[in-house]
């Protein structure tokens, strides 16, 4: 299954490691350091048309990717749960 992150970007739900609120998690120096390192290594993909509210960490055969999304974590998690329950 796939999860739409905004701006036409979709990821496989099986590849999602975590969905994080950008405001809450960026207060930690560890998260800021991680996001900075990911950006420097070209792993960050900005799919937000506006100010990002969340980031989604994914891992697949190509490596790790960090998607910045303008959607709230609650919206993304609800979408993911709705997709899962549609197939039960």
Give your account of this protein's structure:
A 4-stranded mixed beta sheet has the order 3-5-6-4. The chain has 3 helices and 6 strands, in the order βββααβββα. The protein is globular and about 35 Å long. A hairpin with a 2-residue loop joins β5 and β6. The longest helix has 14 residues. The chain has one domain. It is of the alpha+beta class.
Any chance you could write out the topology, listing elements then pairs?
Blueprint: E1 2-6, E2 9-12, E3 16-21, H1 22-25, H2 29-40, E4 44-46, E5 54-60, E6 63-69, H3 73-86
Parallel strand pairs: 4-6
Antiparallel strand pairs: 1-2, 3-5, 5-6
For the structure shown, list the relevant keywords.
88 residues, alpha+beta, 4-stranded mixed sheet, two-stranded antiparallel sheet, 6 strands, 36% strand
Concise summary:
With 88 residues, the chain is of the alpha+beta class.
Q: What's the end-to-end separation, in Å? A: 13 Å
- The helix/strand series, from N terminus to C terminus, equals EEEHHEEEH
* Order of strands across the main sheet: 3-5-6-4
* Radius of gyration, taken over Cα atoms and rounded to an integer in Å: 13 Å
Number of strands: 6
Average pLDDT, rounded to a whole number, is: 91
Major sheet details: 4 strands, mixed
How many individual helices?
A: 3
Categorize the overall geometry. Answer: globular
């Amino acid at each position: 299954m796939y999860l739409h992150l905004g701006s036409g970007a979709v990821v496989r739900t099986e590849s999602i490691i975590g969905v994080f609120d950008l405001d809450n998690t960026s207060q930690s120096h560890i998260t800021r350091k991680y996001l900075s390192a990911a950006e420097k290594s070209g792993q960050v993909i900005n799919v937000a048309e506006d100010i990002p509210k969340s980031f989604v960490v994914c891992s697949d055969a190509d490596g790790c990717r960090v998607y910045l999304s303008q959607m709230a974590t609650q919206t993304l998690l609800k979408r993911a749960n709705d997709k899962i329950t549609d197939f039960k």
